[in-house]
Amino acid sequence: MESADHRGRVVLMGISTPQPVTARIGLIQERDLTVRSSVGAPVTIWAPALAYVADSDLDLLAIVSAVYPLSRGVRALAAAQDTARHVKVVLAPDDSVFFGSELAAALASSPD
What we know:
By secondary structure, this protein is α/β, with parallel strands linked by helices. The chain folds into two domains: 9-52, no CATH class; 59-108, no CATH class. The protein is 30% helix and 19% strand. The strands form two sheets. A two-stranded parallel sheet has the order 1-2. A two-stranded parallel sheet has the order 3-4. The longest helix has 13 residues, at 43-55.
């Protein structure tokens, strides 16, 4: 929250386990911040879900329609909003293994 500007947004995403943290809660009021959060599933479901995928013949890459480096994040967000063309848009570090693969090369050549 310390890096958020006046009237900024703080977004907490991902999976976490409840644990005490130190936070300057007063910054929410002082800076008139909007705080949002999102979680995909409870922590307890991840291990069985990953085991299921590992033991199955599911090809999860089949739903990836675009992979963008972080340096093209704005473009990735625009692509993700185009649901007629994209199912899953992945945002990865610029030096990610995605960008050395044939999949990334094929996706990078797309007109996005």
